[in-house]
């Protein structure tokens, strides 16, 4: 639940970034048990090149501290959209931080903005957009791939930012963004194979003087 606000101490359910080196970071959800390949619940032990970490042992530790692995050590960092982009489970190609910063700048996204995005993909851009627009703004993100939609929704909830985002399964080239969004969006961003097919729908969603990038 740790993406919404910075906090000192790791709680059950938090996502933490296990930092081994600048080229080796892992996002871990702090939960005592996980399912193994046989679908059985087992102790959550995370394996790294420097040995194992009993994930439950992180509860109560301060973010930023050094933790022991069975053959070395690592730091446990507070998650940020930038670190999530570097560690998230890839379901698609993703947008990285240097491009994300330019997108946010050019779309003039700020706290309170209403933003429309498609496709959701792996949620890399979405996490950065949500940080920018919350708490009064809202992100409407669309993907036509059912699994990507459901995993993104689960991740936003697990990260404590579900209230700032609506995730919907929809082919935006064919069906647009829904009449409820007509004239509502401050900004629309399209990361699609054929973005031009969604441009007329994007135009319908954008407010006067709103911004579109594709
Ligand atoms: C490159 S990924 C987006 C990555 C995302 N920007 C990120 O940073 O994680 C493109 C996504 O667009 C989705 N997509 C492609 N065509 C679509 C369409 N017509 N309507 C909705 N989603 C579409 C794909 O399923 C895929 O998940």
From TrEMBL:
Which GO biological process annotations does it have? tRNA methylation
Its annotated compartments are:
Nucleus
Q: Which reaction does it catalyse?
A: an adenosine in mRNA + S-adenosyl-L-methionine = an N(1)-methyladenosine in mRNA + S-adenosyl-L-homocysteine + H(+)
Binding positions for S-adenosyl-L-methionine per the UniProt entry: 122-125, 143, 171, 191
Keyword Transmembrane helix applies? no
Q: Which keywords describe this protein according to UniProt? A: Methyltransferase, Nucleus, S-adenosyl-L-methionine, Transferase, tRNA processing
Q: Name one GO cellular component term.
A: nucleus
Q: Which segments does the entry list as coiled coil?
A: none
Superkingdom of the source? Eukaryota
The lineage is: Eukaryota, Metazoa, Ecdysozoa, Arthropoda, Hexapoda
Q: What is its main location?
A: nucleus
Q: What class of enzyme is it?
A: transferase
Q: Which SUPFAM superfamilies match?
A: S-adenosyl-L-methionine-dependent methyltransferases
Its protein name is: tRNA (adenine(58)-N(1))-methyltransferase
Family matches, as PROSITE patterns: SAM_TRM61
Q: Identify the residues that the record assigns to the tRNA (adenine(58)-N(1))-methyltransferase catalytic subunit TRM61 C-terminal domain, covering every copy.
A: 72-210
EC number(s) for this protein?
2.1.1.220
From which organism does this entry originate?
Cryptotermes secundus
Q: Which InterPro entries match?
A: SAM-dependent_MTases_sf, TRM61_C, tRNA_MeTrfase_Gcd14
Signal sequence residues: none
- Return one GO MF term: tRNA (adenine(58)-N1)-methyltransferase activity
Whether Transferase counts among this entry's keywords is yes
């Amino acid at each position: 639940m740790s993406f919404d606000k910075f906090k000192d101490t790791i709680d059950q359910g938090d996502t933490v970034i296990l930092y081994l080196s600048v080229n080796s970071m892992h996002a871990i959800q702090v939960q005592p048990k996980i399912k193994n390949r046989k679908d059985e619940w087992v102790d959550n032990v995370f394996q790294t090149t420097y040995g194992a970490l009993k994930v439950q042992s992180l509860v109560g530790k301060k973010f930023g501290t050094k933790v022991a692995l069975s053959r070395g050590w690592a730091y446990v960092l507070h998650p940020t959209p930038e670190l999530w982009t570097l560690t998230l489970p890839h379901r698609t190609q993703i947008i990285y931080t240097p491009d994300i910063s330019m997108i946010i700048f050019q779309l003039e996204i700020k706290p309170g903005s209403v933003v429309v995005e498609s496709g959701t993909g792996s949620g890399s851009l979405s996490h950065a957009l949500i940080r920018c627009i919350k708490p009064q703004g809202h992100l409407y993100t669309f993907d036509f791939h059912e699994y990507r939609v459901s995993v993104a929704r689960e991740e936003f909830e697990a990260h404590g930012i579900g209230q700032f985002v609506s995730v919907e399964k929809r082919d935006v080239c064919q069906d647009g963004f829904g009449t409820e969004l007509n004239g509502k969006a401050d900004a629309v961003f399209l990361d699609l194979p054929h973005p031009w097919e969604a441009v007329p729908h994007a135009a319908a969603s954008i407010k006067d003087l709103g911004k579109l990038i594709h």
